[in-house]
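Lab notebook, bench 4. The sequencing result for the construct came back, and we need a structural model before the next group meeting so we can plan mutations. Quick request posted to the team channel:

Model the 3D structure of this chain.
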Amino acid sequence: MKSLWSDAEAARHPGALGLRVYTSRLLGRDSSLVLHGGGNTSVKITEKDIFGRDEEILYVKGSGWDLETIKAEGFSPCRMSHLLRLAKLETLTDLQMARELKSNMTNAGAPMPSVEAILHAILPAAYVDHTHADALISVMNTRDGEKRIGEIYGDRVVVIPYVMPGFKLARLCAELYPRLAGPNTVGMVLMNHGLFTLGEDARTAYERMIELVTLAEDYLSARKAWQVTNPAPAPGATFQNPDGVAIATLRRDLSAAIGAPAILSIDSSERSLGFARRPDLGVISQQGPATPDHVIRTKRLPLIGRDLAGFKEAYEAYFKAQCRNPATTMLDTAPRVILDPGFGLATVGRTAKDASIARDIYRHTMDIIARATALGGWVALPAPDLYDVEYWDLEQAKLRQVGEPPPFTGEVALVTGAASGIGKACVDSLLKRGAAVVGLDINPAVADLHRRPDFLGIGCDLCSEASISAALQGAVRAFGGIDMLVLNAGIFPKGCDIAGMDSDLWRKVMSVNLDANFFLMRACHPFLRLASKGGRVVVIGSKNVPAPGPGAAAYSASKAAVNQLARVAALEWGKDGIRINSLHPNMVFDTALWTTEILEARARHYNLTVEQYKTNNVLRVEVTSRDVAELAAAMCGPLFAKTTASQVPVDGGNDRVI
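Done. Here's the predicted structure in token form:
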């Protein structure tokens, strides 16, 4: 592990809090130190209160912030004097602690302080860094883990036995740290949890973290437990890689267990397949997570294989055995991590982000377990300790902070022609409503349309059945299925009379505007029928369907044919709970079809200004891509739940259509 400190970069973060932000981000850049909101940092600063008196303030990472992207406003300013008094109490409930932390901040608008605020306060250093370093966890979560920690660090760290995070841990550290710390102490190890380093300046605390983690890496390397290869599968073992429909079926069943639509993401990398095919998987994977705070993202154990009923039974038995409060409501019984020798690793979440977080966590967990196993045997915390964290109200509160989820949370939409115009607007409208979206386009730039876990852009030639099949397999492995299909891709050729039309042009328009949509509808049907809320299809048609114009025979005929195809599909697929509706926009000018030159030429043809031409409809309004997209998204929602085979104009009112 290398220090990322840069004097030039540090100079751009002046002041004690600025440097706290800087080194926090350095820690957050390295996923082997912290993941997705994990870890914690603080700094103690003397400030003037409103009366001009000096007051020591602890700026500690606020709940909900991530170290990689944290800003100054992500730190909660707490009065040190009050925190130190709290640390001397014999008991303090979680609710009392939360109230005391919140009510003793100097900025009421700051985020809720970390539950480790009291612990940071009692440590005798200006800067305190806390990580869940993979290397350290690999060492400590083994047989004789505490002994090994001593071999690595000697008297440079104080070792604290595992206690659940919160007040009890802070109270224990307040008792043990002063007694065990010596002149060489630069940090503290919390068994089964993580590493703290201390420093009077930001660089010292940060580089001590890098140094101590490097010592753990070296310890593992010296014992051939750092670069670990998964053992070969059992002789004669065979593995069946499930197809897309099998994955979508599994997602449907998982959604039923959760009680709401969910995302299922497949990782069939060499690393994941190697771990899932280990002969000892049934032992090493069934002990617990790398650190207890991961349990709220991954549950205590992963599912091996696809026996959801068996997992449900085991989870109910775990809850019954550990629950000591009859008022506690059991969480859903669906796994969040699945290990299967056929597909490797799968992760589950109500959103694509949740599934990606679980995936990132378990990728690191696989390495930690493999290293600990090679070092002498992986040992996780027992079930009672993990249950306490999984059902700890303060941890559950982090997941409840998001409020009511958007309407398409957990659902997957596929949009064609997604790189620009109406297709791009449909992507945005569906993302806004909480869907995970797959965008297809012949333009490979669609892959870079969004950089976020709930979007996948795939370059795809919709006229190629093989290309469509490959794209759908990618979509299903990314998100688990397809619930909504928006058929938008199409071409509008230059105007041409029937008598002068080239046969190749006719066939090209029909291929893109009709055949491709037929191929895609047929290929998506097995997935749409598995949608937990029923499949939905929206066809982006055209005003030319009800009111064709001269010079657009190929375009008008192809769009009318797709519209008829949708009507037949509505009749055939209704029994599968799939509804299909069409939109007929007219003159949507913010698309690639309408260049400035074409727009000006068409306006001159009608003896209108450009603005008059753009609003040349009954309502005198301009129709935009967003207008079409918003109605397309609404058609996938509950307002249209009992509507199928409808045709709705989006044209501001066209006298020929009317």
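Residues 412-650 form a domain with the Rossmann fold fold (CATH 3.40.50.720).
Will bring this to the meeting.
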